[in-house]
Amino acid sequence: MPRLSTSGSSLMTPCRGESELKGVLTKVCPDALLEDSTVHHYYMMLASLIGGWLSEQSRLETSPVKNALLTMAKNLSQASALLSGLETGIRSNLETEITSRILNLLAMNPAIGSPESALVMLGALRQDADTVSHACLIAAFDLPSGPEKRGQKKKEWYTSFTKLLLTIAEDAGIRPTLYKDRHPDHESLNGWLLDAARELETFLPVEMRSPSDVARYKRLERSKARLREAQRRNFPSG
Known about the structure:
Strands 1-2 form a two-stranded antiparallel sheet. It has helices at residues 18-28, 36-57, 62-82, 93-107, 115-141, 156-172, 192-200, 213-234, and strands spanning 179-182, 187-190. The chain is mainly alpha-helical. The protein is elongated and about 90 Å long. α2 packs antiparallel against α6 (156-172). The longest helix is centred in the middle third of the chain and has 27 residues, at 115-141. The mean pLDDT is 86.
């Protein structure tokens, strides 16, 4: 089901405080000199990342929006037709009766004052209703209608999270390793990037956190690949 695109940007306070972030960064970057301004910058990057994720989750599906617009278009068009009973041309008894009753009641309103003024008001209302009805139709059919790609949606926000980790590593002069140690009976996942992700994910909402180290490793691996591909597109060799 297609969804409406998000607009603008938002910030959402991370699940832990800025002072706690400094402690975590000191843990994962023990030899780095962390200025408060740098910690604040990383904290705001986390806030922006969470805000973007929440905006993505709250995107409206196009189906209810389209249905509402089509309903409005239909209702406005029907109302305009029912108020046309005293105009020239072929009119049904229902349209004539409804328009006459509304016209008489409007004429009794001191702010309107006469059947002639009431008739002008109804004509303007019909014109506006037809204009808005047409706009609703255009808006409804302007919405995306093709289905989104099937399969699990790429966790694009995690790519931004990985980019933040890589930025922290670069600023601290740390090599952001990510590797597997293979043993005869098992395989262990290791690396600074995995350790840092485990620590910094605690600042994200529970729904954003990796359910296990295996899932976290896979997310990091895919995110690194996407970042390398993006870099190749932006800076092609040769």
